[in-house]
Each structure stands twice: as C-alpha cells, then as structure tokens.
Amino acid sequence: MKNIEYFPIYTRVGRKGSVKNFIISIFNRQTRGWDDNDTFYCCNTYKNKRCTIIQCNGKRRSFEDLYRIVKTYYPSISIKRFHVILKHLHDNANLNFFYCTDIKNVVFLFYDSEGILSKDNRDKKVNGFYSMNEILEIWENL
Prior knowledge:
- Strands 1, 2, 5, 6 and 7 form a five-stranded antiparallel beta sheet that branches. Strands 3-4 form a two-stranded antiparallel sheet.
- It has one domain (19-140).
- Helix content is 30%, strand content 20%.
- The N and C termini lie close together (11 Å).
- The protein is α+β, with helices and mostly antiparallel strands.
- It has helices at 19-26, 63-73, 79-92, 132-140; strands at 29-32, 38-41, 45-46, 54-56, 61-62, 95-100, 105-111.
C-alpha cells in the first residue's frame, strides 16, 4: 500500500475510544441531502492544536485528509488498518465515497440510506491518492 505524506490535522472532537468511533464522531455535521435523506459531513478541521487556524470547513473528506486526521489522534495506525476500518464502516455504517469533480479527488461522507457509491469517474484520481476502483480493489483483498 502507498505511503501518505503525514502532517497533523486537528479537530475539536478529540479521541473517542476506538478509531472507528472517532471517525463516526468527526462526521457530525448533519445536512439535508438532495433527496431528503441526511448527509453527515466531517467537522471543521484545523492546522494547529489549539484549533484556531482553520484547515477546512466541515465537508466531505478525502482519503488522505481523513487518514491524516486519524493519524493525528492515533499515531500508530497503519494505512492497512485504516483501510480495514473504512471498509467496515462502508459495509456496516453507511460510510460512502465518490469522486468529487470540484476538487478532483475521492471523498468520504456518511449518508443515511443505501448509499451513493457512484459508478461515474471510478478510475479518476487527478488530485487524489487513490481512485474509487483502487480503494475497492484494496478492500476486496483485505
């Protein structure tokens, strides 16, 4: 698996026991989706530990940023273990991902229904670390 350049990304959420629970807790910005289902976006993230310098307003998050956020609070997590947890959340807790044409990257969010795993742009990774197909292939081999 590929290595990701790490730099800390902070939240005001803090550690929540397990990595799985932490990931669920940072996706806490609930909005009404285009089809009246609920969508849960990631909380605001920050460049500094005191959470005074915004890194990103709460939105969907790329694989890379999500990994960096988790690694900030769980420094020993490996990319493989991170994939295992994301796959579990995708299979059991409505974590979804798709290729975002705005930022040209695969992004993650929680969605309260069957899911929105798009069939479009599955091979694209213009600014991203993985394409959707690469993520699905890794998950098949875990």
